Amino acid sequence: CGHLEALQVPGAAAAVQGFWLRSFCDVYVEVAKASLRCPRLRPSALPTLLACAELGLRLLAPFAPFVAEEL
User: Fold this and answer.
1) Number of neighbours of residue 12 by Cβ within 10 angstroms
2) Angle, CA of 61, 67 and 68, to the nearest 5°
3) Average pLDDT over residues 5-25
4) Which residues are CB-contacts of 61 (< 8 A; sequence separation ≥ 6)?
5) Is the pLDDT of residue 4 over 80?
6) What are the recorded GO MF terms, alphabetically (predicted)?
7) Structural domain boundaries in the chain
8) In this predicted model, what pLDDT tens digit does every residue of 17-63 receive, in sequence order?
9) Residue 16's closest CA among 31, 28, 30, 3?
10) Pick from 24, 12, 18: which is nearest to 62 by CA?
11) Per-residue 3-state assignment (H helix, E strand, C coil) for the chain
């Protein structure tokens, strides 16, 4: 998705929103809850969750820098 490179801000913002809402929150966080309750099941769940959250905040920063900085 090259929306940002093509200076298509609405498309890039929609892609970032889609990542946060659908990929990260709706899917990964929900799936990771069981592994976070019992870390022996999947010890890599927390590092993966943190890496995805960091990536999401880096993607969010150009559109909402103060929100991303606060989070």
Assistant:
1) 19
2) 40
3) 82
4) 68, 69
5) no
6) ATP binding; valine-tRNA ligase activity
7) 2-61
8) 888 888 888 888 888 888 888 878 778 888 888 998 898 889 888 88
9) 3
10) 12
11) CCCCCCCCHHHHHHHHHHHHHHHHHHHHHHHHHHHHHCCCCCCCHHHHHHHHHHHHHHHHCCCCHHHHHHC
Check: CB of residue 69 under 8 Å from CB of residue 62.
no
Contact yes or no for 36/27 (Cβ under 8 A): no
pLDDT at 12: 83
pTM of the model: 0.70
The two structure tokens encoding residue 19: 């990542």
